[in-house]
Each structure stands twice: as structure tokens, then as C-alpha cells.
């Protein structure tokens, strides 16, 4: 019986920190948008803009790490590809969300709130996929 080697491309400590760090920033932006929608205090919109900018930096670097992991994966399909595509989608929607938040305070509503919810869900899905045993090369 021949055993095939298992090639694991789990995120390293820096990659995992960047990946997991984007979730609370996107979530904070969503909560700030909700607070702005209820109070109309402009500072909540400013908080959301800064949190989105920080999340884009974190997820952008995590996206670079994910691209390297994808290029190193033996078969170019499966979970490394799904992980990269989820993270790319989260980053692109986050960038669109940042542009939406750059508008005047109330002009960003309700589109900014909806985009914040979507990007938060995408970031959680990407983080879940990225931190749960990305494997390439085995049948499990």
C-alpha cells in the first residue's frame, strides 16, 4: 500500500493574523453603520470608513498570502481556490464599500449598510475557509 503525501497549505501565523484581523474590522464597520442609521451622528460614518480602510489593508495582505498559497498548491482547484475567490470577493466588495462610504454622510445610506453586511459575511466565510485545514493533494 502506497501512501500519498498530504500537502497542507494552512496559513502561517502572520497570514492567519491578517486574515482573522479583517473580520472584526468589517464587523465594526457594520455595527458603526447600524449605529449611524439609528442616530444620524456623522462620527459613526467616519468610524465605519476608517474601519473599512483598516480591514482592506489586512485583507489585502491576506489576499497576497492566499495567492502565493494558491500558486503553490498542486492541483489548482478545490479549497485553496475557493478560499482565494472568497477573499478576493470580500476585498472587492470592501473596496466598493469604501467608495460608498466616501460619499456625504447620509448619501451612503442604505447602500453602505447593505455592502457592509455583505462584506462581513464574505470575510467570515473566507476566514472560516482559510483557517479550516486547507488541503491540497489528498482525497479527504
Automatic annotation (TrEMBL):
Domain annotation DUF2231: ranges: 13-131
Keyword DNA-binding: no
Matching Pfam families: DUF2231
Transmembrane segments: 47-70, 82-99, 105-131
Keywords: Membrane, Transmembrane, Transmembrane helix
Protein name in the entry: DUF2231 domain-containing protein
Keyword Membrane attributed: yes
InterPro entries referenced in this protein's UniProt entry, alphabetically: DUF2231_TM (IPR019251), UCP029509 (IPR016923)
Amino acid at each position: 500500500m502506497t501512501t500519498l503525501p498530504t500537502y497542507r497549505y494552512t496559513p502561517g501565523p502572520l497570514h492567519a493574523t491578517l486574515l482573522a484581523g479583517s473580520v472584526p474590522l468589517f464587523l465594526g464597520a457594520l455595527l458603526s453603520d447600524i449605529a449611524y442609521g439609528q442616530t444620524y451622528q456623522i462620527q459613526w460614518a467616519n468610524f465605519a470608513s476608517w474601519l473599512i480602510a483598516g480591514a482592506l489593508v489586512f485583507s489585502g495582505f491576506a489576499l497576497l498570502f492566499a495567492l502565493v498559497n494558491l500558486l503553490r498548491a498542486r492541483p489548482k482547484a478545490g479549497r485553496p481556490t475557493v478560499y482565494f475567490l472568497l477573499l478576493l470577493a470580500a476585498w472587492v466588495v470592501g473596496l466598493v464599500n469604501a467608495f460608498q462610504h466616501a460619499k456625504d454622510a447620509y448619501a451612503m445610506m442604505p447602500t453602505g449598510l447593505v455592502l457592509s453586511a455583505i462584506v462581513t459575511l464574505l470575510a467570515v466565510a473566507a476566514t472560516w475557509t482559510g483557517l479550516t485545514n486547507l488541503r491540497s493533494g489528498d482525497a479527504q
